[in-house]
Amino acid sequence: MNEEKAASHPFAETTISTQPVFSGRMISLEISTVRLPDGRTATREIVRHPGAVGVLALHGGRMIAVEQYRKPLERVQLEIPAGKLDPGESPEAAALRELEEETGFRAGSVRHLLSFSTSPGFADEVLHLYFTDDVTPGGQRPDEDEFLSVELLTPEEAERALRDGRICDAKTMLALYAWKLYRLSGALTP
After folding, report:
1. Does residue 143 sit in helix, strand or coil?
2. What is the per-residue pLDDT across 94-141, written as a single tens digit (0 to 9) for each?
3. Tell me, what's the pLDDT at 1?
4. Are strands 75-79 and 111-117 parallel, antiparallel or unpaired?
5. Is 80 exposed, middle or buried (0-12, 13-18, 19+ CB in 10 A)?
6. Is 144 a catalytic site residue?
């Protein structure tokens, strides 16, 4: 829905004021006072995020995944390569960059599958999911504060990791379903 239509929707909330609370390296937090459709006011805590990408990358019929520690969850988990957009960077360029930095695999091309809101109840982050099976191995170049290992998973290993809870994030789950659809029908999206 475009912004003009959203603003005229009967459930639309009108922002009265916004107070910045925190601005960090990856996110910012603000509290907005809004007017509700019935005229009352409420507050909304909103996390602002520059957007992110994830890449379903296949090499030799296996999914390229990274294992890393996720502090908010206090656990290690297995995910598709992913990361935030840099200022002025296109999602496609970010997908190519993140894949190579995190895994060492360089993609000749990527294909956009879909974009989705990760947590629309409190955050404006949109994640762009890409696909590639056109990769060449190379050397990893993770960020200085990233510690991760690369795994190449068969479909059965990926499904087992999902059942075992090693994979528990939405972007990787969506990538697994796209991969399953691809294996069954040759299409990546319905």
Report:
1. coil
2. 999 999 999 999 999 999 999 999 999 999 999 999 999 999 998 888
3. 59
4. unpaired
5. buried
6. yes
Contact by Cβ (8 Å): 179, 158: yes
**C-alpha of 167 from chain center:** 14
Would you call 145 exposed, middle or buried from its count of C-beta atoms within 10 A (0-12, 13-18, 19+)?
Answer: exposed
Contact 158, 167 (CB under 8 A): yes
Which is the catalytic residue, given 144, 146, 156, 159?
144
Report the distance separating Cα 127 and Cα 136, nearest Å. 24
23 and 46 Cβ atoms separated by less than 8 Å: no
pTM of the entire structure?
0.92
Q: Which amino acid is at 78?
A: L
**Using CA of residue 80, residue 81, residue 83, residue 89, what is the dihedral sign?**
negative
pLDDT digits (tens, 9 = 90+) for 55-83: 999 999 999 999 999 999 999 999 999 99
Q: What is the dihedral sign for C-alpha 149, 81, 165, 151?
A: negative
Domains of the chain from N-terminus onward: 3-48 (no CATH), 52-185 (3.90.79.10)
